[in-house]
Write a structure and sequence with these properties.
Strand order of the largest sheet: 1-2-4-5-6-3
Number of domains: 1
Structural class: alpha+beta
Radius of gyration: 15 Å
CATH class: Alpha Beta
Strand content: 35-45%
Number of helices: 3
Helix content: 10-25%
Shape: globular
CATH topology: Thiol Ester Dehydrase, Chain A
Order of helices and strands: HHEEHEEEE
Number of strands: 6
Largest sheet: 6 strands, antiparallel
CATH superfamily: Hotdog Thioesterase
């Protein structure tokens, strides 16, 4: 049995005062095994070369997968932590909004695996593919 899934507003509030709030992470949709989030590109998220910093995309994708995990933990679980992550960068953007669609292909008692695709909202261009494994903590 799983806990009730938090609302979009509750999930977005989790990050205030932490890294998700700092980068402007916002939850758009949530359901079991799926979470959609977005983040506005702003100068602080760019690398010194003027392009979107890879860590900004990883922050968006990892947070989306992490919030998806937290939103649907088993009742007995106390939390989770990321034990592996991988990113493939396909492009960049200099302005606009980033969208992240995170989905869970594996739900186990001790691990969850999440995939995320980061796209540029205005152009639909795919910017990154992301995968992470979460270990459930009891």
């Amino acid at each position: 049995m799983s806990r009730a899934i938090p609302t979009v507003v509750e999930l977005s509030a989790w990050g205030k005062g932490f890294l998700p709030g700092l980068i402007g992470f916002e939850v758009v949709e949530v359901e079991p095994g799926r979470l959609r989030a977005r983040m506005a590109i702003r100068p602080e998220l760019l690398a010194p070369n003027g392009y979107l910093h890879a860590a900004s995309i990883i922050g968006l994708a990892d947070t989306a997968c992490g919030y998806g995990t937290m939103a649907d933990l088993p009742d007995q679980a106390k939390g989770f932590t990321t034990i592996e992550l991988k990113s493939n960068f396909l492009g960049t953007a200099l302005e606009g909004l980033l969208l992240c669609d995170a989905t869970r292909p594996h739900l186990g008692r001790t691990t969850q695996v999440w995939d995320a695709i980061v796209t540029h909202e205005q152009t639909g261009k795919k910017l990154a593919l992301f995968r992470c494994t979460q270990i459930v903590l009891y």
